[in-house]
Each structure stands twice: as structure tokens, then as C-alpha cells.
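Review form for a predicted model. The reviewer records the input and the model, then writes brief findings.
Reviewer: anonymous (R2)
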Amino acid sequence: MLKDNWLIFKGIDTLSERLANDIFNVANHSIIATNKFTIVLAGGTSFSSVYRILNDSKSNWKKWHIYIGDERCLALGDKNRNDYLINKIWLGSGLIPKKNINFIHSELGVDVGASDYEEVVREIKKFDVVLLGMGEDGHTASLFPNRIYDKDKNVIVEKNSPKYPKNRISMSCKMLNKSSHVFKVINGASKKNTVDLWLKGVELPINKIHGDREKVYACLDCIPS
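Model under review:
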């Protein structure tokens, strides 16, 4: 049985339109209330359409402050970095001031990059929105199943990722949970079995993060029969 906070869509295009609209609604309210809007972006192709919609839309972009949930330890400009696609589709030519874009400097190496980002997020009490995707194994950001991460850290390192590349930097569950809204996107038939485990209450990284309010945007092909 799906909970009321699960929204099901026939395809990624309609899902992306709804998600982008919900992001804008939170952004508008946050800017009115606090004079700024903070959002944690997710990597992966599931968010490509969302970022294209944002790029083609209007907002008070100077009030937007951008963060990222995780990054792969690769050279700047590497196509396998999460920030590569985000910059290409949206932020590279967008209207958000560069000083408002707070990405992970993973090119510095896993330990230095993590320490640097720990300083960046240390004073943040709460994000307005956190975006999360899910891998076939239930991982989200670079938080993988059957791992023990330091619960006191805002930023963690992963030095033996089951997916390329081995070295990654990620916000911790603790940090990602500091959010008014957590929006999760689930896309692809290959994730159906993992969604089934999630709905049955099996502990996975994706269901350890919920913020104050959680909403799941899922394509129909990944929902168990």
C-alpha cells in the first residue's frame, strides 16, 4: 500500500513538471519568508528534465543558494561528475550568482574535499529542499547499503564505492535530514524490487532520510504490482 506522499506518474516528463512546480512553490514561499531559498541538488539523469525546466523558467534567482548532495572524486570537467550535467543543462549559463553555488571540490581529493565541504555546510541549520534519487541497490547520494558512516559528520567519505569511481564525497544522513522538504525521484523498471523492499520496511539509505516533510515522485514502471 502506497502512502499519500507517494505520487505516481506515467513517465519522467510529467513527473519532472510536477516536481519543478513543487520546487518553485517552496522557493517562492521561502523567499517571501526568509529572503532566500536553499536547495540541495542530486546528480543523475533522472533529474535532467527538472533542471531543464528550471533553466527555462523565471524566478528571483539571486535569492537561490545551491548545494549538492554528493560528488565523485574526479577531475573538474569530467563527464562522470554530478556537477557536469547540472552545469551543462542549467547552472553553467543560468542566472544564479556563482557565489551562491556551493558545490563539492572533489577534485581536491576525497579527504581534503570532504573537509572543505564540511566547513561550507557547518553553519546551515536547515535546507528548504533536498532532492534525492535512488540507485538499484537503494543507495542515495553516495550513501550505500551495509555501510557504517560517522553519525556525527555532516559530510562523509566513501572510499570503496560499489560503483565507479571508488572515491566519493557525500552529505551524511544527518545533514540531508536537515531539510523542510525532501523530494525523492524513483525512475526505472530495474528499481522495482528495491521499491518493494522499501515499501516492506527494509532499511535502506533512501528511507533513512525524510526531513520535516517527505514526498516521493515515482514512475509507474518502478512500482511493484
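Findings: The chain has a mean pLDDT of 97.
Further findings: DSSP finds six helices and ten strands in the chain.
Recommendation: see findings above.
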